[in-house]
Design brief:
Number of strands: 9
Bound molecules: ligand C2E, magnesium ion
Radius of gyration: 19 Å
Number of helices: 13
Largest sheet: 8 strands, mixed, barrel
Oligomer: single chain
Order of helices and strands: HHEEEHHEHHEHHEHEHHEHEH
Structural class: alpha/beta
Shape: globular
Helix content: 40-55%
Strand content: 15-25%
Protein name: EAL domain-containing protein
Amino acid sequence: SAKAAGRRQWRHYQPVLQTGLVERHELNEHLDTAIAESAFKLYYQPVVDLRTGDLVAFEALVRWPHDRRGMVLPDEFISLAEESGQIVPLGAWVLERAAQEAAVWHAESSAVRAATGRPPLRVNVNVSARQFRDAGFVDVVRHAVDVSGIDPRALVLELTESVLMRRDDRVHTDMRTLDDLGVGIAIDDFGTGYSSLSYLREFPISILKIDKSFIDGLGVSQQQYALVEGIVRIADTLGVQVIAEGIEQPEQRDLLAAMGCPLGQGYLFAHPLTPDQARTLVRDTTYEPA
Ligand code: C2E
Ligand code: MG
Ligand code: MG
Ligand code: MG
């Protein structure tokens, strides 16, 4: 398929961070132009209910179509944009675009989903630490909600543990403001950083995403299995929803469903989709009540 061919192609591009200073400088300038022209694309990866297979959310994942480098993946430019501060306008664009796309899904599916007892499809948006720390961040979120008209409860911000580690007043205040707005907060890549379950008590966290590295070890190591099961159980006790990341094998899905992990994401279900593919999926999975 074109998608598979595209993926093969991406591997040929030199990692940006290993390129020379001159090229790096050049890339920064290109990034500036790309931000000014909103030349990025968002892909959307489904999050599914592990018991029923029902679609519950999409995670927005940014890509940069670059004339010489092809489709550049976020690992190649997000850290560069963080260092330069360009992540602030780029992140604002991502939030607004994703919220607008979600509003389209809602127009197509909300009535039927409500009639069948399902909440509106959520959209998960990645937010980097630098972006969260910017003084205007909460206003950017408010603006994205206002202009798109989406129900704020359908918007989830994915933060990494590096944001929560700082524990200063601003982080607490902004978290509370976002929570009051109705916006959900997820901890992304849980288990890879300075993981602490006390974050779940200290901050208004609604979702915990268990990193792929734990899911990889599920069927292999008894210890990994016990660890994941423990996290799922504690999260459940605290009323926090769990998403298992990077599920590739049916066996991993079965083990997770059996231990009561509610949600999952991974190539087993779907790769990140283009906006058109995502809309088609929304349409196809929105059935009329019997
Ligand atoms: P993430 O938020 O943890 O997103 C999951 C990454 O794993 C995505 O890579 C996704 O395509 C990939 N993935 C999903 N399922 C599987 C699977 O079953 N197997 C494997 N091997 N991979 C899977 P992607 O799109 O390249 O994004 C990489 C990271 O870049 C993201 O990790 C996130 O930290 C960051 N990122 C992406 N979009 C944005 C954005 O708009 N803003 C910010 N600040 N960061 C972003
Ligand atoms: Mg994420
Ligand atoms: Mg993740
Ligand atoms: Mg990640």
